[in-house]
Design goal:
With 416 residues, the protein is an alpha/beta fold. The chain contains 13 helices and 15 strands. The chain has helices at 10-23, 42-57, 77-82, 106-121, 148-154, 159-164, 173-179, 191-195, 256-274, 308-322, 339-348, 362-368, 394-411, and strands at residues 61-64, 70-74, 87-93, 130-135, 197-205, 222-228, 231-239, 243-244, 277-286, 292-293, 296-304, 327-332, 335-336, 354-357, 373-378. Strands 1, 2, 3, 4, 5, 6, 13, 14 and 15 form a nine-stranded mixed β-sheet that branches. Strands 9-11-7-12 form a four-stranded antiparallel β-sheet. A hairpin with a 5-residue loop joins strand 1 and strand 2 (70-74). Helix 1 packs across helix 13 and helix 9 packs antiparallel against helix 10 (308-322). The two termini are 30 Å apart. The protein binds (2S)-amino(hydroxy)ethanoic acid and manganese (II) ion (2 copies).
């Protein structure tokens, strides 16, 4: 049987199912069935309460870092770090994209708690502290920069920039944090927290059609991540002249929506030409009235690919083709996970396949900050993600829990 032939971990499966059912309604939109779990909102607060409750239920010490990420610890991570054997950390994020799926993020957090339940039931003695992390604002859905929690934690994004980011209503991240009870003046790189992390393993739903495609060489319920493609976000501010939709002659119009249409069309053409992917998934139209020619159309571009030069060339080509400036909002270089760790994880899981991904993750930000990091992907039959259609079969989710159990048993005894 792929991914090892150890007996399944029943206690972890039962607690996984319980937690999964409890989380299901939080932030779920009744109309679309998608999730709207955005940073520093009431839904975020409910998810944080849930995380703290699950941690307390297991006697874990919960620490909020300077940025607001949550860490639930078994054992003393500071003493272990001082002794040169920092902790092993599992986890992921609980926030979502607008109308996102149930699995992107929560699967990693719930599976981490469930794996600990199995280990506790089996009487496993941890040889080093075990942490479960819940990173804030991984999707960047509200303030526009993905992995904001881990970028601020590692200093990959300055606190000045992060705190000044605004949402669609003009609320800054600092204001939203303060309203949610987190002191924004504390925000910044948090070395005390980073010192506690010897190894980080993020389990995540597969976002792509490898494991789910019977014709793909990678088969099995769980794969190991090797790397994250370089990816970035750009904005085009397309200005025009507001005017009346009914009384303005066509020849008198300065309609920025036409420029936006060109950006959208040419983004696809540039991606095809340079061998990458490009998406325009968000527009902000001012004043956004049916009967008003817009004064401004802000157009966001997400571009990614295995080759960073191809991605950047595609964006430059697009900008020159449409004659508009591409304002870079974020860029993440290609991230390779710790190669020896990747090989060890694959071996631990019975020769699990190793896959690169085009999706960004907190694991990528920590890896770029020098933390030995690995990822596990749980099979997604359709590969669809960032959609209410996102799905993973329960047996495969349970296989993910079992995989984390094996990983902790193997890594919890080792020095980092
Ligand atoms: O955008 C991403 O790839 C991730 O879901 N934040
Ligand atoms: Mn995502
Ligand atoms: Mn994610």
């Amino acid at each position: 049987m792929p991914n090892g032939s150890r007996p399944v971990a029943q206690p972890g499966h039962e607690s996984f199912d319980r937690m999964w059912a409890e989380l299901a309604p939080v932030g779920r939109h009744p109309g679309t069935g998608g999730y709207r779990r955005f940073a520093w909102t009431s839904q975020d607060a409910t998810l944080r309460e849930w995380f703290v409750g699950e941690a307390s239920r297991r006697g874990l010490d919960v620490v909020t870092d300077r940025v607001g990420n949550l860490w639930a610890w078994r054992g003393d991570p500071d003493a272990a770090a001082a002794a040169g054997a920092p902790g092993l950390v599992l986890g992921s994020h609980l926030d979502s994209v607008p109308d996102g799926g149930a699995f992107d993020g929560p699967l990693g957090v719930v599976s981490a708690f469930a794996a600990l339940d199995h280990l506790d039931a089996a009487g496993f003695a941890l040889g080093r502290p075990l942490g479960i992390a819940c990173f804030g604002d991984e999707e960047g859905a509200r303030f526009g920069v993905a992995c904001a929690g881990s970028r601020l934690l590692t200093g990959a994004m300055t606190s000045e920039r992060g705190l000044a980011l605004t949402d669609a209503d003009g609320t800054t991240m600092a204001e939203a944090m303060r309203a949610a009870g987190h002191d924004p003046s504390a925000v910044g790189r948090d070395d005390e927290t980073l010192r506690r992390v010897g190894t980080f393993i993020e389990l995540h739903v597969e976002q792509g059609r490898a494991l789910g495609d019977p014709g793909h060489p990678a088969q099995g319920p769980v794969a190991v991540g090797s790397s994250i493609w370089p990816h970035g976000r750009w904005r085009f501010d397309l200005a025009g002249r507001a005017d009346h939709a009914g009384t303005t002659k066509l020849e008198d119009r300065d309609d920025p929506m036409l420029a936006a249409a060109a950006v959208i069309q040419q983004a696809r053409a540039a991606a095809q030409r340079f061998g990458c992917v490009a998406t325009v998934g968000k527009l902000r139209v001012l004043p956004n009235g049916v009967n008003a020619i817009p004064s401004l159309v802000q157009t966001w571009l997400d571009a990614r690919g295995a080759d960073a030069h191809a991605v950047r060339n595609a964006v430059s080509h697009l900008a020159s083709t449409v004659g508009q400036a591409a304002i870079e909002e974020s860029w993440t270089d290609a991230t390779d996970f710790d190669a020896p760790l990747v090989g060890r994880l694959s071996a631990l899981l019975g020769g699990a396949p190793v896959l690169a991904t085009g999706a960004g993750h907190d694991a990528g930000i920590l890896a770029s900050a020098g933390v030995p990091t690995g990822m596990l992907f749980v099979r997604n039959p359709t590969g669809i993600s960032h959609s209410p259609e996102e799905h993973a079969e329960t047996d495969d989710c349970h296989a993910g829990v079992d995989a984390l159990v094996r990983v902790v048993e193997a890594l919890a005894e080792e020095d980092a």
